[in-house]
Amino acid sequence: MDPVQQRSKGFATVLAVGTAVPPQKITVDYMIDNYFRVTNTEHLTELQKKFAKICKATTIQSKYLYATEELLKEHPNIAACMAPSLDDRLDVLVEEVPKMGKEAALAAIKEWGQTISKITHLIFTTNSGADCPGADSRLVHLLGLSPNVNRVMLYYQGCHAGASTLRLGVGLDRAYPRA
Predict the structure, then answer these.
(1) Domain 15-175, CATH
(2) Fewest Cβ atoms nearer than 10 Å: which of 4, 32, 38, 162?
(3) Which regions span the lipid bilayer (predicted)?
(4) Could you give phi then psi for residue 13, rounded to 5 degrees?
């Protein structure tokens, strides 16, 4: 069959959207007051003032973080000024990003109203971590999806993540028409 004839008819439709945010919500005021204490850099008073000014200028009222004081105690390099912390950060992200992906996926599946077994494609987008096999593979396992589900992993798309994911979804919809 001609590939053009195989395309879906009409517009692609978003059937559901799932999102997840880290569990800890903090106010920016709390962050300003506690960041330097938690990182043992309270002596950097000029930097504290600059940090407070930047935070106030953004007009952001709150942020979601995965890092808790307990996590920072378990991984002291993350909070230590100038310590090598990339490996520690990635170790945390490799475990936690797929869990957040599961939360988002389950919300979308619930909104969609269909069974998990009907999923044929998975697009996983994150601005955190990069590993192989990726968070998409871990999510397939966490959701109990068939290993034959077609997966695409998008890392570090920044502000473009949502639009890139939607464009890719539209392309998949057109390339793989529903029966």
Answers:
(1) 3.40.47.10
(2) 4
(3) none
(4) -125, 135
Q: How confident is the model at residue 5, as a pLDDT?
A: 47
- Is residue 50 classed exposed, middle or buried when 0-12, 13-18 and 19+ CB atoms within 10 A define those classes? exposed
| 143 against 69, higher pLDDT | 143
Note the pTM of the prediction, 2 decimals.
0.76
Distance CA 146, CA 61 (A): 41
Q: CA of 144: how far to CAs of 61, 101, 116, 117, 149, in Å?
A: 37, 13, 8, 9, 11
Q: In the Cβ-directed half-sphere of 156, how many Cα atoms lie within 13 Å? A: 3
Please determine, for residue 3, whether its predicted confidence score (pLDDT) is greater than 50. Answer: no
The runs of H, that is alpha helices, within 39-175 are 45-58, 69-74, 76-79, 86-112, 135-143, 161-175
**Known catalytic residue: 55?**
no
Would you say residue 103 has pLDDT above 60?
yes
